[in-house]
Fold this sequence. Notes:
Layout: H1 32-36, H2 39-54, H3 59-81, H4 84-106, H5 115-133, H6 138-160, H7 165-190, H8 192-196, H9 204-230, E1 236-240, E2 244-248
Helix pairs in contact: 2-3, 2-9, 3-4, 3-9, 4-5, 4-6, 7-9
Binding site for Zn(2+): 79, 205, 209
InterPro entries: ACER, ACER_plant
GO biological process, one term: sphingolipid metabolic process
Amino acid sequence: xxxxxxxxWGPVTSTIECCEKNxxxxxxxxxxxxxxxxxxxxxxxxxxxxxxxxQRFEKRFSILHISNMILAIGxxxxxxxxxxxxxxxxxxxxxxxxxxxxxxxxxxDWHYRSTMPTFLFLYGxxxxxxxxxxxxxxxxxxxxxxxxxxxxxxxxxxxxxxxxTAAKRIAKWYVxxxxxxxxxWFCDRVFCKTISDWPVNPQGHAxxxxxxxxxxxxxxxxxxxxxxxxxxxxxxxxxxxxxxPYVKIEKPKTQ
Length: 255
């Protein structure tokens, strides 16, 4: 939210600002809460990465957790600077990440295995190049939502074919976090003028970051469970510190 201060990073050049006063706490951080709220995403992705590497899950899941971290770091850079280049470091990884989800969701039943990763890679590379030269605005949001919607039928199929109660609970948390997070994002965007008059700003966009951090972690964990079932690895849902779910597998000795 512009307040006339340019500070360390200079005038705002990004196309989007959230409902938070710029440089309220530091001359180096434009949107303080929207910046630090990405920390949970990095930590959760790191936990998921360690679990994937320790149990030797397929590399696709290690890359997925790393992509979550890259997205969170890109978002931190964007909200800390409100510069157009850093905005691209947030938006471009969003598209790359959802393309990776599409690969993980659809590749098990794809008959021509080399065509899907090749197409998705070229699509992601082309988007990054075009996005570097053009500002899409609302077009980016529509494009991203369409990509997300393409993932829903497959996620639903995995859900209805999963009998494990704990795994289904993770899927339900995935849905709950994205719904609550979306409400926070919507209110921050639409009711900013009203919220600005409140004694305390609830920081809806920062809450969106936090909820989406858990959303990504739940999505990754559920997909790891489903993939382990497909591979016959006898997956079980365990809980880190009794709270955070993760997948424990038992691979056959031949694997």
